[in-house]
What does this fold into?
Amino acid sequence: MHQLSFLSSDPSEPVPGRRRSTAENERLLMAYRHRRLSEGAHARSVARELSQLRSLARECHTQEEPGLLSQLVSQPATMARVLLEPRVAIARSTGRARLRAVQRFIRIVGPELGRDSAADLSALDALLPARPPAGWHTSGVLVAGSPNRRRPIAPTLDATDLARILDAAGASAAPHCAARDRALVSLCCFTGLRVEEVVGLHWEHLNLEPTRIAGQGLTVAVQRRGRLLHLPLPGPAADALAELAAPRVTCGLAVRGPVIRTQTDSARALGYGAARKILRRACRHAGYPPVESAELRAGCAYWLRTQGLSDHEVVGVLGLARVRSLDRLLHRHAALDAQRRVREVLIQ
Amino acid sequence: MVTGYAQPHECCYADTGAPSRSRFREVGSREGACAVRQPQAPTWPTNARGRQAAMITCERSAVAGSRRAQPAESSGPQLLVRLLLTQDLHSSGCDLHPSVRDLHHEPDDEPHRRGIGYQLAFPGWEGSSARRSGGQPGRRHGVAACDPSEDPVVRDYLRRLAAQGAALSGWRAYRYQLRTTLRSAHWLAGRPVPVIQLFMDDRLLGRALVDDTAPSDGAQLSRWTLAQRRSALRSFAALMRPELLAATGEDPHGVLDRALRGVAERVGTGYRLSGGSPRRRGGQTPTTSEVRSVINAAGSVLGYRGLRNRAFLQILASTGIRVNALRQLDTAACIVMPTGRLRLLIREKSKCTLREVELSKELAAALDAYIEGFNAWAVARRWPTRLRLGQPGPLWRNSGRGSWGNGDVRQMLRTACARARVDDIPPHGFRRRYASDAATVLPRHVVAQAGGWQGRERMDDHYVTPRPAAIWHKLRVAAQLADHDTARAKEQRYAPTLVLVE
It folds into this structure.
């Protein structure tokens, strides 16, 4: 967001982007991490909180003195300023995550620094803007951040576009990687799996389950929201996986371990960044700008809808939590369909 | 007297240092009236107040033909300024750049009488009595001297508002409303009122909220403007609550509610303001034949401008895009799909998100023709600019530099209407016609989705205008069908009798 760059216009103000985390900060953060893990918090959540705290320390960093979290705890006004006026544009969810991390940090580390946590938290609350609460569970506190997540410009895709990208993935890759790239792109394009789920997929997660109509159907087990979901794999994805497994089956090798590997004979799974690169390359070869995983999932949802699946059935295939998420995914497709209908009317 | 629309050192994106989208930064634009482009590192001479007042290139309005003064100092960075000369420049007593003085001393002075307007971006002046013709000139000149944006609390608020992800237009609107409210309070109290003090006096706050006299020209503001002012102050109270709480010792929302209770009617859970004129909405909805003839007339201009006018108006008529959204379209936001379809990513009103609009093959061909025509024209004129889809830069151009201005678009449309012998169609008439025609056949939610309306209410109330001719046609058809049904019913009723008779 361009409006925010004025925050760094003053040369006497801190310069963003300098990562000079001090040993003291790391010591406090490690203590915080240990305490949070001992409270039973999820390791990923704790890692995110540490990341938010480090970014806050960077925000306070100046030429004269590094941003020390211990100083930040003792200066609620600086803390409030950092929470309210970030140097770079952030999402509202990031702003809230920062506030949560700060509150937990003050609660856990504050007593170790000889501070009164309750007093510091109330001082911070008093310095944060607020609007009248909308419900009993909210306090109306406002933090910085754009309500919408910013994504790069990408067009809306339909089934034809997905097929083009899939074809380009096979054509653009090296011969020994063609099957792997096709499998990767087909899993991203024609299933409800996210990129991080695809690269973490193992052959053991795939199951052949009996179905009433089509004999056996391939499903994939993924962990979401603390639950194990068995998502059905549509035809294009199942075919690509069969093509990927065929050489190992013919050689008599065991089909186990990571599905998407760095090399054919390697046991190491492909990384997230490499998978994104393969996706971007396929999009480029197909003539599209780089698309995000959300666009691919939306295209898949639209394809499933055109195949006659109802909204709830599509939600089941994609593994979404709510039908509203499908409405969000298909919002742009619905708008394009509406435009086409209106265009036909106006032409007549 | 010279009236300036902006104060370069004080205005939002200039004083805050935020860069605009181009390599220039915008300095003090007020409702888009004054476009001042200034390099990031200006080295200008300063006037008596020690502020920047240099200007090199003066651009005349295109109302009576364009004739541009050459840059007086070709070595320095160029600053494009539009001047508004209403009376004598020298009566202002300010330091003027030689090029401006030269321009003023030209024999064809009194340009405002012939409709040639200039705007001068100059520090120290506010307001315009010449901008709006219907107001009371000079209503509150003394009030304009103070600029509330110098208030550090207001500056903090604007920073926080930007950090909240507010869209640029919304940010500007709230800044304007805050400024207007403080000026109204200044006028009512007879002294400058800082915003913190305004929240200490709920009666003055309430009167300033419903003061529907424009500080610039004395015209009556609309209710919509006043409602936006209330929203801006609500936002201010929310974002600056800690500071206001510390200064006043009271919750600012409570103060605002008390102020509103004194001047507004409590309706449901909100307040209805008493002042302001009803907002004028709607207008003429052109027919299909009118739109077609206007497009043909606009496209009959020679050169790339004819191709541009045709493509622009065709896209407006066929997609219902807002005029400014289409006018500000960037070539980087035009995506050519491998299927050959062209998708435009249009910026939605008051939002940071983009809306995707797919063009038909005919529209894409018209756009391609304009781009080819412009590039050929640019080659012939030795302009360095080339249009290419997917690369950044304004799509709609009127010259080798910059984008097509809003005033030029309106002028083109007026000229085309006159040439086609059609009543003047406002630019929004195309969107109105799109909604009206589509809503006669399709469900309203489909039309709202296609046109980018967030809900049906706004579209129903302000865009869809049923045409009497269409209504009568459908009633006639319905009557014919009813007659036919009646005849069939009679036949069926009397059929057994006939059988019996036989």
In short: Chain A touches chain B through 50 residues (CB under 8 Å). Residues 70 and 318 of chain A are 45 Å apart (CA to CA).
